[in-house]
Design brief:
mainly alpha, rod-shaped
Length: 146
């Protein structure tokens, strides 16, 4: 028999899964440090790709200057400057990503705990109905060890 409390509980679970749950439930499969490290690593990869694209655009834009001064440029100083700019670029993205994903994990944690509690409560209610349907006796094979 369908109970009103179970329907309300299932509705709350479904609403969460459809809205915030799409992004928050996958977070539950990671430890906090693993989630942050994985997403920071992704951010660093994307920042490197963005830096390379931006560098390519600047090179194409300044191509006439580069070709005119190809023998006069100090490539060692240029390389050091480029590496320094890249290191600062990645460091800024690293800091922002670390803060952002730590906050995202912490914000999702209470909602996931409520979600898990509701699922457990729904499972317990279902188990109670199974017991009632079987006449009050449940034989569980999990306890039998051969």
């Amino acid at each position: 028999m369908v109970r009103e409390e179970d329907v309300k509980l299932m509705s709350r679970i479904a609403i969460y899964e459809k809205r915030e749950g799409k992004t928050q439930i996958p977070i539950n499969s990671y430890y906090r440090s693993d989630y942050i490290r994985l997403n920071v690593l992704k951010t660093i990869v994307y920042a490197t790709i963005a830096f390379a694209l931006l560098f390519a655009i600047v090179v194409v834009y300044k191509l006439d200057f580069i070709l005119a001064n190809v023998l006069k440029l100090d490539y060692k100083r240029l390389g050091i400057a480029l590496f320094t700019v890249y290191a600062v670029w990645v460091f800024i993205y690293w800091v922002i990503a670390r803060i952002l994903f730590a906050r995202r994990y912490e914000a999702a944690r209470p909602n996931i705990l409520i979600y898990n509690h509701r699922l457990k409560k729904l499972q317990e209610e279902k188990q109670k109905e199974v017991v009632k349907a079987k006449g009050g006796v449940v034989i569980d094979d999990d306890f039998i060890d051969f």
